[in-house]
Design goal:
Rossmann fold; single chain; alpha/beta; 266 residues; two-stranded antiparallel sheet
């Protein structure tokens, strides 16, 4: 059974990594997908792969931090399909650095793409969802939105903000039949992180930090993304769903000064 049959989805940052995985997974579940990405080559490739799966797809080169680009994305979607049922806010760019050394431009880049872009896309799409009296927003946050990632610039702040944006969307738009939920991936191996995980020392160190004993992959995120976009989660909104192999649970025990010993905290 195709849980997303004939629904129309927009996936930002859909050209590669988790975004591409979600776009293809939605297509396999029967959705028609608009692939939004700043890279025209990867956006086109993902869109072509969706068509090869038997679903309709277009791609749109988009800088999500620019409102005019977002309006173009929404207009193209409505012109092609007449509606939009699902929005996945996945586009992100990390500019790492220590806080005391982080350039203002680096802060702004991550903040504008990851948080402002998600707001702009959601606002634009929600105006159509409100008219439809239905819709679903899936925001790709991170375990870094729950616990700080040091030396990652504004990344943790953006992901934490995305969680609160999700909750606000859920409260304000529930009367219109719109649901909004967030996913918090943990360590996920993607083409973008492959260079890091190819180092056996880094891979093993991260693997040991996951209670389930392995680094995740795209399929570990797509299952949750399908659930949150489908009628299986029709009474779920404002939720933050972990896909981290238990990292959020295990974090308390991994931080110095937070280990239980004989009923006390060391």
């Amino acid at each position: 059974m195709q849980r997303l049959k004939d629904r129309v989805a927009i996936v930002t940052g859909g050209g590669r990594g988790i975004g591409r995985d979600i776009a293809l997974a939605y297509a396999k579940e029967g959705a028609h997908v608009v692939v939004s990405d700043i890279d025209p080559d990867t956006a086109k490739k993902t869109s072509e792969d969706i068509v090869n799966l038997g679903q309709k797809s277009i791609y749109c080169v988009t800088n999500v931090a620019i409102s005019a680009d977002i309006q173009t994305l929404t207009q193209k979607t409505i012109a092609e399909f007449g509606r939009v049922d699902i929005l996945v806010n996945n586009a992100m760019k990390i500019v790492p650095g220590k806080l005391e050394e982080l350039p203002e431009e680096a802060w702004d880049t991550t903040m504008n793409i990851g948080l402002k872009g998600s707001f702009l896309a959601s606002q634009s799409v929600a105006r159509h969802m409100i008219k439809q009296k239905s819709g679903c927003i899936v925001n790709i946050s991170s375990i870094a939105g729950l616990f700080p990632y040091n030396w990652a610039g504004s990344y943790s702040i953006v992901k934490a903000g995305l969680i609160m944006l999700t909750k606000l969307q859920a409260v304000e738009w529930a009367p219109y039949g719109i649901r909004a939920n967030a996913i918090t991936p943990g360590y996920i191996r993607t083409p973008g992180t492959e260079g890091m995980y190819a180092d056996p020392v880094i891979y093993e160190g991260r693997r040991k930090g996951v209670p389930m004993g392995r680094v995740g992959n795209g399929e570990d995120i797509t299952g949750v993304a399908i659930f949150l976009a489908s009628d299986d989660s029709q009474y779920t909104t404002g939720s933050v769903v972990g896909a981290d192999g238990g990292q959020a649970v295990g974090y308390f025990l991994s931080v110095p000064g937070r280990r239980f010993s004989g009923g006390s905290v060391e």
